[in-house]
Structure formats: structure tokens, C-alpha cells
Design brief:
This protein has about 230 residues and is an alpha/beta fold. Helices cover about 35% and strands about 20% of the residues. The chain is built from 6 helices and 9 strands. Strands 1-2-4-5-6-7-8-9 form an 8-stranded mixed beta barrel. The radius of gyration is 17 Å and the shape is globular.
Length: about 230
Amino acid sequence: MNVVYRPVKLINREVLDTFRCLPCTENEDGTRLADKRLLAHGKDIVATATKNAALISKAFQELTKAFAAGNRLRMIVPINSYSLASGEGATLIVQAIRELDKSLHGAVITEFIDMPASLNLDMLGDMTVPILPFFDKYLAEPRPISNKDNFTIYSNCNYFGVSLNMEALKEGGDAAVSLLTEFWAEATKSRLKVVIQGVRDQGIVDKAQQYEVFAIDGPIIGPDKETLL
């Protein structure tokens, strides 16, 4: 599992000291693709959890090295909800998390991705419980993006925010700005902070700054990094 680290700009900070770790693969033409969707499940819980655990392990090794070198950073780590759908899968994820020293737990934000289409509060609670002993900042990518009714589920389960992955959208230009506006409005109603990911368009950046979103990342912010050192 190759992993890269994408700089994330917090809206109230000039220094880029937060990074989102992403699985990365190399295409046949030599180009590289870094995208959390590479963690998407194929109806095999253990295979999904094994892949996700490998990413967590590598990312936490890198975070540990960065802190040992004197770099004080925060890391957003994706966790595929499907990987927690069985005891065996959850055990693999927890084992990878346990590799990180407790002193660094406060530097981690977990992002739950690949949510079930029929998500309810009990399901969200069940998938969050295995992670509760380790971290206190939870972010989620709602699925589908247009399903507004799911937003309150996250605030009711003490998630601090929701993410919108612009790279996963077909919309661009004004249509993308409109979608961001709708997403932000629904998140705000549920008292959730907004994280915008994979941004290439200055128009999205401008709108995100106007809305005072929590954080933004993508090529327009900075290139992916091979290491945090």
C-alpha cells in the first residue's frame, strides 16, 4: 500500500501543518492516482479492512517519524466504514491503530468514508465505537452527497464535521459552487464543520473562504508529499 500526504489548509491558519493521508497507485502510463476511493470495498470485509489497516499502519509510522524529528502536525486518516462491519475487520483496524503511541492520538482526525446507503444512528454508533478509545475528532463523508437527511446523524453521534470530495463529482464551474453552497448550508444546520477536498478551482476556494469552512485541500493548495519529514 503506497501512501501520500496531502497538505490541508485550515481556514484560520496560514501554516500548512495538517495532512490527509491517501492510498496511492501507479497507472500503466506512469501517472499516479491518490484517492481515498481506492479504499472502496468489494463486498469483502476482511479484504477491505486489511487494505485499510495497511494504510493506517504506514501513515502512523510516518506521523511517528515526523514528531520524532520535531515536526508538530495533524493527520486526517480515512477509515472505510465497511471494514468495521465485522468483528474480524474491526480487530484489524484496531490493531493498526494500536501501533500509534498514545501521546500522538491527539494529532489524528479520523474520516469515515464509504458510508452505507441506508445509514442510521445505530449503525453509525456501532462503527464509531471501536475507534472511541483512541481518538476524539471524527469526520465523515456523507453518502450520497445529496442525502441531506443523513447530516444530523453525524452531529447526533458527536462528529465534528463532514467532508465533500470535489474530485468525486462530475460537476464543475458554477454547478460545483452551487453544490458546495448546498452542502455547506445543510452541514451548518446540523452544527457541523465543513472540509472541502480535492479542489482545483479558485472559485471553490473563494466560496469556501466566504463560508469560513474548516479546511480545504487539493492541487490548488499544494502537491501531495511522499513524506512528512
